[in-house]
């Protein structure tokens, strides 16, 4: 069995184009259907092509299933006419763009829902998620650094990635480099090769760099190219750091952080609609590609 991943959503929260945005990338997507478009961040993984797991449940999940034949119901199974190859869902944090899609999965389908105890507590505190009947959807706590079977033949290991609490849980003081159960990366392994998925990361730490060394593939937070990108685009004042995401550029950015790391394939995911790398003709896109990075797109397949 071989690990196979499909990036079913390459964009950060809001997608591309964002519904209420006319900044450069969104405007191009509205005006020209040949310009890049992308749905909100999520990954689908399998080892046998039959059973699939989702890593994060995007608000765009229904459209992502429509666009991905592998995730669609089979014509006839022992389960009857209502069935799905989605057997489990794993959450890397409690952000709206990663949990809202759970409500799309409320029609009585049986699956396992994995998350850290802290993120399960967030879901437990919100009664809307009781739409996922607990006799159908098993809420399974996953401890950090403790491997578990996400699917038969596919092992997942969660680990802390610097980040912050979800936007809707922020108080007056916001910590953006918390290391614990609120924001995690995940190592996915079929026993031979390992793929890391880290859609949110506030900074590179020595421990994280050591963990990623030797990975066959790393799908990493590409939210913004410049830390002050929102201001540059004229659509906001929050920096990437304030949102809990490290920029690509700069001395503390991911391009610099990955220099010298032994990683087979490097792919930017969770890309904000303001990020200039969406434009394949941009100097920023040329720079990331020259550094050996790929820019994710909806439907991109990764076989480590």
What's the CATH class, please? Alpha Beta
Q: Residue ranges: pLDDT <50 for 5 or more in a row?
A: none
Task: Tell me about the largest β-sheet.
Answer: 7 strands, mixed
Largest sheet, spatial ordering of strands: 6-5-4-3-2-1-14
Number of domains: 1
Which strand-content bin applies to the residues?
Answer: 15-25%
At CATH level 2, the architecture is 4-Layer Sandwich
Describe the structure.
This protein is α/β, with parallel strands linked by helices and 304 residues long. The protein has one domain (4-298): 4-Layer Sandwich (Metallo-beta-lactamase, Chain A). It is built from eight helices and 14 strands. The strands form two sheets. It has a seven-stranded mixed sheet with strand order 6-5-4-3-2-1-14. Strands 7-8-9-10-11-12-13 form a seven-stranded mixed sheet. Strand 2 (42-46) and strand 3 form a beta hairpin. The model has no long low-confidence stretch (mean pLDDT 95).
Layout of helices and strands:
Layout (H helix, E strand, L loop, with lengths): L3 E6 L14 H8 L10 E5 L5 E4 L5 H6 L19 E5 L5 H4 L11 E5 L1 H8 L12 E5 L6 E4 L2 E7 L23 E6 L4 E5 L7 H7 L4 E5 L7 H5 L20 H4 L7 E5 L13 H8 L2 E3 L4 E3 L2
Parallel strand pairs: 3-4, 4-5, 5-6, 10-11, 11-12, 12-13
Antiparallel strand pairs: 1-2, 1-14, 2-3, 7-8, 8-9, 9-10
Features:
304 residues; alpha/beta; Metallo-beta-lactamase, Chain A; seven-stranded mixed β-sheet; 8 helices
Short description:
The protein has 8 helices and 14 strands.
């Amino acid at each position: 069995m071989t690990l196979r991943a499909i990036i079913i959503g390459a964009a950060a929260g809001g997608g591309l184009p964002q519904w209420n945005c006319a900044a450069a990338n969104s405007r191009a997507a509205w005006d020209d259907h040949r310009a890049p478009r992308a749905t909100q961040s999520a990954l689908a993984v399998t080892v046998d092509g039959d059973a699939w797991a989702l890593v994060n449940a995007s608000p765009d999940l229904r459209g992502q299933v429509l666009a991905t034949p592998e995730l669609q119901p089979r014509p006839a199974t022992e389960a009857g006419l209502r069935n799905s190859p989605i057997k489990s869902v794993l959450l890397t944090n409690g952000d709206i763009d990663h949990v809202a899609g759970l409500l799309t999965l409320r029609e009585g389908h049986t699956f396992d829902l994995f998350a850290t105890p802290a993120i399960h507590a967030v879901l437990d505190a919100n009664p809307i998620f009781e739409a996922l009947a607990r006799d159908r959807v098993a809420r399974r706590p996953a401890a950090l650094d403790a491997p578990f079977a996400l699917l038969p033949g596919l092992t997942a290991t969660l680990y802390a990635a610097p980040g912050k609490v979800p936007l809707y849980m922020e108080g007056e003081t916001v910590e953006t480099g918390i290391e614990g159960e609120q924001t995690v990366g995940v190592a996915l392994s079929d026993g031979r090769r390992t793929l890391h998925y880290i859609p949110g990361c506030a900074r590179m730490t020595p421990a994280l760099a050591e963990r990623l060394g030797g990975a066959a593939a790393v799908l990493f937070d590409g939210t913004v190219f410049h830390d002050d990108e929102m201001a540059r685009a004229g659509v906001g004042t929050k920096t990437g750091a304030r949102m809990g995401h490290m920029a690509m550029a700069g001395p503390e950015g991911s391009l610099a952080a990955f220099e010298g790391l032994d990683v087979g394939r490097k792919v930017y995911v969770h890309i904000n609609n303001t990020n200039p790398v969406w434009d394949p003709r941009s100097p920023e896109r040329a720079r990331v590609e020259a550094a050996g990075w790929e820019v994710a797109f909806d439907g991109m397949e990764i076989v480590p």
